[in-house]
Amino acid sequence: MKSLTELNEIKQKVIKTSDYKILVGMATCGIAAGANPVMTELKKIIQERNLNNIDLQLTGCIGICRLEPIVEVYDSRGDRYTYVKVDAKKAADIMQKHIIEGTPCTEYLICDDSDNCIKNILETKSFKKQIRIALRNCGNINPEHIDEYIQHDGYLALGKVLSSMQPQEVIKLVLDSGLRGRGGAGFPTGLKWKFAAAAQNDQKYVCCNADEGDPGAFMDRSVLEGDPHSILEAMAIAGYAIGSNQGYIYVRAEYPIAVKRLNLAIKQAKEYGLLGNNIFGTDFSFDIELRLGAGAFVCGEETALMTSIEGKRGEPRPRPPFPANKGLFGKPTILNNVETLANIPVIINKGPEWFNKIGTEKSKGTKVFAVGGKINNTGLIEIPMGMTLREIIYDIGGGIPNGKAFKAAQTGGPSGGCIPAEHLDVPIDYDNLVAIGSMMGSGGLIVMDEDNCMVDIAQFFLGFTVDESCGKCPPCRIGTRRMLELLEKITNGKGEDGDIEKLERLAYSIKEAALCGLGQTAPNPVLSTLRYFKDEYKAHIYKKSCPSGVCKHLLNYYIQPEKCVGCSICARNCPVSAISGVVKSPYKIDNEACIKCGVCYEKCKFGAIYKK
Amino acid sequence: MNLLNVTIDGIKLQVPEGTTVLDAAKLANVEIPTLCYLKDINEIGACRMCLVDVGAKALQTACVYPCSEGLNVITNSPKIRDIRKATLELILSNHDRSCLTCIRNQNCELQALADKLNVREISFDGVPKGLPLDNISKSIVRDNNKCILCRRCIAACNKIQTVGAINVMERGYDTIVSTADHRSIADVNCVNCGQCINVCPVGALYEKDNTQLVWDAIKDPDKYVIIQTAPSVRAGIGEEFGYPIGTPVTGKMVGAIKKLGFDKVFDTDTAADLTIMEEGTEFINRLNNKGKLPLITSCSPGWIKFCEHEFPEFIDNLSSCKSPQQMFGALIKSYYAEKNNIDPTKIFVVSVMPCTAKKFESDRDEMEQDVDVSITSRELARMIREAGIDFRTVEDAQFDNPLGEATGAGVIFGATGGVMEAALRTVYYILEGKRINELDVKPIRGTQGIKEATIKVAGIDVNVCAVSGLGNARKVLNMIKSGEKNYHFIEIMACPGGCVNGGGQPIVPAKIRNKIDIRAERAKALYSEDMRATYRNSDENEFVQKFYNEYAGAPGSHKAHELLHTHYIKRERYLSKK
């Protein structure tokens, strides 16, 4: 492709004249939920019935992962229908009733919170509150067809940059937009590019961090599976801005669909001359290669990631020197997160002022959150910075299931902290989250209710960090393990006076002394739960009780005499013979001997056993 | 070179651009504690002990943080002390703290640091690691329970020696210094050079202790126990008794050894002279008869094993001469035994070496037990202490004769370039009939890793090279393979700086290693003894002359070959897992 004109030609090309366009959600979430049989069934029917007025495509994740498999039908009038929880049988019904007979199957359509079935996802309360920039194409285009990306303004930004902008202008534009890194640290993207552009070297690199290690975060996966070209385009723009001709996407090996679609996208972009030598006929060349991760959370850390690409053991190193001066292979390098990059083409096309009108004073634009835990509407949402937690949980998230009370929301994954009810109305942005003891992180948001034990939550996140520590520096290698041992001691009912002070001293020391962000933020879940839920820790230690009823070792199992019929099933299954009694009379559990395995609780057919 | 203005703890000074905060602090006489830092070898900022306040958001590791104009550093404050102590407590919580019986008791950098930082309690204790010892190797023992994962040994093995027998394995809390597949180092390409021991701050790496075998032999009335001491031992062992680095203590060393109860105390240097006669002859032979060149020395068993593993294509270049240690044992159990009417099977030969690889060498099948036990300088020092001998007040004594009178050429074997110089002195004399000009050999002296010289002898420009450190050996051998370099004669010593810096020498803590070039200091002791020697050329050694006249005929004779020469084998990197 030699010019923007050619690009426009493709853009204007045949907008297929079909009566119906059917999109089947086939990101990992969709496929895991069973989208393959749905697609197969649809294809089968189309072939068998010779229906050649139907454009059937696969698409990425539209964000309502709990309702997958999703099939969206667009008719020739422009109406859109979102069918949810589709299986092969429902797919056949939809083809028959809606496509062939012309009557939508309302019973399969998406419902809103009040269980009113509506037509499509756009009409849901959740969707209306979102501003989809990074996720703009996810669920709307087929990520495996470059033409569809182009028809949705794809590669326009790259064309504009190469034909009418100097590198310095591009950097200024990104700086003016106020875009900050979406991977967690929130460093101003334009500034990072500026430093790298200023470094003098004949070889520079653009890296994309697609390692996405936070448990519960999958927004990067969504973009890579649903809109891979947006990343390629953004990386090429970054390359032009800093003076680099080589990019690497470091993608975790656990995302095989993303890897496949990225490789396909790179191939297609090269065929069109939108990647490779002399892009758009200019003398700017940019190539992109994939590098796969190997199962290490720490390799999402900037210097560890680069060390891993170099073929060495993925461990961070002290900075300075900073990667903008000496990064990959010792050359000036920028590393940007997937979501950060996904914003770039839009910022170029619509201008920085459009972008920085969204968000708060110091946190511009939107953020994608992966909402999970005790919340009705789990999935991906993209909202403007500054929205409050209350809005996210209750307006978009549909509230807490089973009428339970909200307890806390964890943001930032294993590096973040818990936000209690008292902060529900804090506008969410980078700096506010840090001020209340958490951090944005990659955008994972786990909601917890009254049945969650905060000590157990801290232990869960710390367990992850301990597993993933690279082992280079003693504060993280040994310190986090010691912290975990203390937490295990506490949740096992062996907590002692002084343990909280030890935890605090350890947490403080590790934060200050660890070599990289993993270690420096590992104590955060403990510190923030100590800050807001110290009473729970005290209950575990001094009262040997778990107020939320979670920590097995602090639970006692009891048999309600009124409900017990003396069938002796519990006693016969108890592995330590802690239950005694006479048949047909109520049995009793010896709490001293009980090992809290819970088998009796599961076996009792009369609900006579309870735990407290 | 730009000068930068920096302030360290209120002290203003100027430092060259590129100086780290740690080095700048040294210039201001401010000592920042370190553990994993070893200058030019291991600079990774891993242990976090050297954290200082440079005015940045977070504390930074002084060992790698570069100075900048106007930098204001605080190296000690209540906050920094708290964090250093907590970090050290964590390291100690994961360390086998059996100091009282540890081989590094009183010479341990972790012990010293804990005392210095006034750590009197370990608040976060953990379950002991309970890892198995790796004591299969004949030379080196590894105790991962004491390892603090500073990675200095890995840097020595990978960066300096380019052997790569050990590296970090597993991750997180389970990180461990190990070999491929967790084999013993005896089952991989470890060459036994012991440089890992020299750089280990704690007791995680140490020599196989064979002193009990020596005590048992001495006690045994049936055995005739002879001990030989290598040149480097006399240059280093004084440090074990408080003498400054590089103090020659030959007289006291011999005196102390004599008090231990050996039947004879001989000097390995004599055998070194013998080695020169054999090797010099071998070289002249190859030179004259288009033999395999370059000839490469073979007295460093660390180098030999390295050659067998990594460069088997150079095995034919190796001198077939045994090392001085081995030649000594061979001639003791033959010529000496005959001459003195001693049953050779009753002779027990002990060698004291600056070297851990000598333990492996003495046990090689190809060596026919010329030497029964090889112990290191450190083991000898322990024996002397255990026997209640006050080294510093021992009267100077002389080696026993006849194998006590070596030439200066024999003594300089311990320094890198020494073997080459000794060989050249005799070879030149044999071919030219006059003594070599010392200035011509000077380029071969010094602690530089690769040294070359060209000596005109018998009408030929003989190119010689002296290498120390296996990384440098690899470099030179690759240059020969690529044709970039062309040498006739190469001396290769496994240990950087030569045997004076061998894996069996007294351990010098990083604090001192980072400041002083111990190799140069110890080598000085040897060169000064050379200067004072009556005879300075191996061909002048009377005992050696007698040995040939009475027994072996001439250098390179059939008898000489039988006794004093050996062969080598190609080795795989990994033995199959047992």
Structure commentary:
The complex is a heterodimer of chains A (612) and B (578). Chain A has 612 residues and is of the alpha/beta class. Chain A has a 5-stranded mixed beta sheet with strand order 10-9-13-11-12. In chain A, strands 2-1-3-4 form a 4-stranded mixed beta sheet. Chain A is globular, with a radius of gyration of 27 Å. The termini of chain A are far apart. The mean pLDDT of chain A is 94. By secondary structure, chain B is an alpha/beta fold. In chain B, 35% of the residues lie in helices and 13% in strands. Chain B is built from 21 helices and 17 strands. Chain B has helices spanning 21-27, 78-93, 109-116, 152-160, 195-199, 211-219, 231-236, 250-258, 268-288, 301-310, 324-339, 357-362, 377-386, 408-411, 418-432, 438-441, 470-482, 510-513, 518-532, 542-552, 558-564; strands at 3-8, 11-16, 51-52, 60-61, 72-73, 140-142, 167-169, 176-178, 205-207, 224-229, 264-267, 295-296, 347-353, 373-376, 450-457, 460-468, 489-493. In chain B, the strands form 6 sheets. A 4-stranded parallel beta sheet of chain B has the order 11-10-13-14, sandwiched between helices. Chain B has a 4-stranded mixed beta sheet with strand order 12-17-16-15, sandwiched between helices. In chain B, strand 7 and strand 8 (176-178) form a beta hairpin. In chain B, helix 9 (268-288) crosses helix 11 and helix 9 (268-288) packs across helix 15. The mean pLDDT of chain B is 95. The chains are: A alpha/beta (612), B alpha/beta (578). The A-B interface holds A 296, 313, 317-318, 320, 466-475, 477-479, 481-482, 485-486, 502, 505-506, 509, 512-515, 520 and B 44-48, 51, 58-61, 64-66, 79, 82-83, 86-87, 90-91, 93-94, 123-124, 126, 148-149, 168, 170-175.
